[in-house]
Prior knowledge:
Elements lengths: L1 H12 L4 H53 L10 H13 L3 E6 L4 E4 L12 H7 L4 E5 L4 E9 L7 E10 L1 H51 L13 H51 L5 H33 L7 E5 H18 L3 E6 L4 E5 H17 L6 E8 L3 E8 L21 H7 L5 H11 L3 E7 L3 E9 L6 H4 L1
Parallel strand pairs: 7-9
Antiparallel strand pairs: 1-2, 1-5, 3-4, 4-5, 6-8, 9-10, 10-12, 11-12
Amino acid sequence: MPKEKFMDRLRTYGMSIKVPLAGLVIAVAILPLFLQAAVMLGSFNQGQLDARTIEIQNQCVILSNKMTRSGYMTAEKKNATGLDSQMQAIADVYNGRIVIVNTNFRVVTDTFNLATGKYYISEEVIKCFKGENSSHYNRDMQYLAQTIPISDPANEKSINGVIVVTASTENILSLTDKAMGKSNLFLVCMCLVLAVLAAAAVHIIMRPFKKLQMSFDRVAQGDLDADISEDTYRETRQLSLSVQKSLSKLKAVDQSRQEFVSNVSHELKTPITSIRVLADSLMGMEEAPVELYREFMTDISDEIDRENQIIEDLLMLVKMDKSAESQMNIGQVNINAELELILKRLRPIAKRGNVELVLESIREVTADVDKVKISLAITNLVENAIKYNRDSGMVRVTLDADHKYFYVKVADTGIGIPEDALEHIFERFFRVDKARSREVGGTGLGLAIAKNVIQMHHGIIDVESTPGEGTTFSMRVPLTYVPRQEVKS
């Protein structure tokens, strides 16, 4: 049960980054120590074995030379008691055994007195009679084996016998074990020290992130003006800058929402106020002429139409905001024909304002678009160009395309847009000239609708304007509509 509760808490809260970071610090510090300890113990053990091998070889060479000079292999045993005693002493020193083998592979002398007179045939002995010395370490049995030839006193190239020495390495292994024990104790102490140092290091490293977390908590509680700058590390600086950008956008969205609500309230209230003023004026007149009544009722009807248009545009924006891209009615549309139809519908409006409409189609274009929505966007752009043009002005609509996009430009010779207003013209209810907007009947939502439609088609819209000379709106829309990945899923 305690283990299950711990796992549940771990899954709920997640594992702290301090755990893998501390583990990484300890691993990076301790692994070289373990590797060094292993290499040093191996080197120490091998060095002891090499030293023991050389030491035995030297003893055997000395013993072999004495046997050669004394003619040990041909002398009688009673004359060689001194050499036998020396062999026994060497064997005792190295806790081993010395065997002398003659040319018939019979054991002449055995310090253990177990194999005297018996045959001793092995690969090492045979090679030694051929002049090849050998040294062998048996790790499993823990002994060293060494063979040294005994030469003939009359002919040094002739070999009369072989000295076979076996020496125990238990004392070397015991010494290595002691060194290993001390090494392990040192490593354990180092692990504890490194664990403490790693915990302290991780705490110091993570302190700026802890400060950031506290700042984020204040932001989450609603304090959007909280100071979240943290320049200790480049990562914390970049993280705080990213969050500050997000907060700036969030503040802008919140401000935009407040402005939008305020604008909606104002725009909806204005026609109602006008209607109320006109109605109160009529009610205050006892014997007003019929012509005046008709004039007032016409003004009231116009204000109702304007209110209705604002509501319809708002509903259109809300619908586009809420509708998913997958619900768009995409189909193959001839853009050239659609532009001709749009301009045909708008020519009566242009004629009333004495504005010339010109369509310039550079090439035939067919694209995957929502016909109704794209027509609405282009209509808004062209209608604005007509309404905010000058007398005897011109609106030129240009269509072009490449292998990936089609381009529509709507250029007018109108009053233009001031530079400080260009970045706001796609905002809802924003008007450059409010007086003229009310005169021509604009709601301040047409460009916002156009931008929404183009973005739903994964396109972009841009504007260039020179006050007093005219404005050009440029839109770029992909020829092939590809739903975004999140919409597919």
